[in-house]
Design goal:
It is built from 3 helices and 5 strands; from the N terminus they run αβββαβαβ. It is of the alpha/beta class. It has a domain of 83 residues: Nucleotidyltransferase, domain 5. α2 packs across α3. The N and C termini lie far apart (91 Å). 7% of the residues are buried. This is Cell division and transport-associated protein TolR. Keywords: Cell cycle, Cell division, Cell inner membrane, Cell membrane, Membrane, Protein transport, Transmembrane, Transmembrane helix, Transport. GO terms for molecular function: transmembrane transporter activity.
Length: 152
């Protein structure tokens, strides 16, 4: 008797696990991690504050540059307190202070930025770029004390 072409052949069941798709998925994930890992390392070099800080002597008082919410710049140094300045005046003032300190053999000028919390990120970065143009190497950011949380 002739076998029907529509008849199914019975094959033995293959109980082994096919690992080829898993290997493919792992290789794709490896490539993704290799490509994205260098992107995670890039960033701005930030000098984070330490647990303990050194106390500053009276001759090392920092220059405080204040940036208001509407973009006005004020500078406080030595006996001058909150003088309104423009960006070119700020560069000139800081450059002069920097040269005075280097001539006197003192440490470099320390600058602290006192910015309003409502300032745009771009405005603060522009101010930091201006400080860099004036030759300032290290800049600190001032913060206020956190408000106490109410207890229930």
């Amino acid at each position: 008797m002739k076998q029907s072409p529509y008849r199914r052949e019975k094959k033995a069941l293959n109980a082994e696990m096919n690992v080829v798709p898993y290997i493919d998925v792992m290789l794709v994930l490896l490539v993704i991690f290799m490509v994205t890992a260098p992107m995670l390392i890039t960033g701005v070099d930030v000098d984070l504050p330490k647990e303990q800080t050194n106390t500053m002597s009276q001759s090392q008082l920092p220059v405080i540059v204040s940036l208001t919410g509407n973009g006005e710049i004020f500078i406080s140094y030595e006996s001058n307190v909150d003088l309104p300045v423009s960006e070119p005046e700020l560069i000139n003032t800081l450059s002069n202070l920097q040269t005075q300190n280097s001539d006197a053999g003192a440490s470099p000028v320390q600058v602290m930025i006192n910015a309003d919390q409502n300032n745009q990120y771009g405005a603060i970065m522009t101010l930091m770029a201006t400080l860099q143009q004036a030759g300032i190497q290290k800049v600190g950011l001032l913060t206020g004390a956190p408000l106490p949380t109410p207890s229930l």
